[in-house]
Amino acid sequence: MKHIQCIETILYVTNQQASAEFYERIFRKKADLNVAGMTEFRFSDYCKLGLMPSTGIVKILADKTPHPDKGNGIPRCELYFYVDNVRLEYDNAIEAGATLISAIEDRDWGDRACYFADLDGHIIAFAEKLDK
């Protein structure tokens, strides 16, 4: 799919600043963009994560979908990050205040992974391949 230039996943958040600070701790880096209405973390030239206040997206969604805040705390997506050291990311997520969902375990799909929830209930997984 050469016509797609970049993937940006955008999470709708209740409190943009609190979520930006949380993800800065999770990623151990400052946001690449942090302005009213959008925070972005660039992982590569082709992949970014955005944080948008749910109050901002409702202007676009209008009355066509339920308000995102009605799903707050309910897992609505999963960010699955392959990392070099799952233990390091696990410890960092605990220190950053993420809610532990599932500790590090060998999974039957061939990964060693752990799961957390962010401030809005979005799921964050850190994984490494078992065949390393």
At a glance:
The protein has about 130 residues and is α/β, with parallel strands linked by helices. The chain has helices at about 15-25, 55-60, 85-95; strands at about 5-15, 35, 40-45, 45-55, 80, 100-105, 110-115, 125-130.
How would you describe the overall organization of this protein?
This protein has 132 residues and is an alpha/beta fold. It is 23% helix and 39% strand. The protein has 3 helices and 8 strands. The protein has helices at residues 16-27, 54-61, 86-96; strands spanning 7-13, 33-35, 38-44, 47-53, 78-82, 99-106, 111-117, 123-129. It has a 4-stranded mixed beta sheet with strand order 1-4-3-2. Strands 5-8-7-6 form a 4-stranded mixed beta sheet, covered by helices on one side. β3 and β4 form a beta hairpin. α1 packs antiparallel against α3 (86-96). The radius of gyration is 16 Å and the shape is globular.
Low-pLDDT stretches are: none
Number of helix segments?
Answer: 3
What share of residues are in beta strands?
Answer: 35-45%
Rg:
16 Å
Largest sheet: 4 strands, mixed
In total, the number of strands is 8
Shape: globular
Please estimate the helix content: 10-25%
Summarize the helix and strand pattern as letters.
Answer: EHEEEHEHEEE
Please give the order of strands in the largest beta sheet.
1-4-3-2
Alpha-beta content class: alpha/beta
- Measured between the Cα atoms of the first and last residue, the distance is 29 Å
Instruction: Write down the overall mean pLDDT.
Output: 93
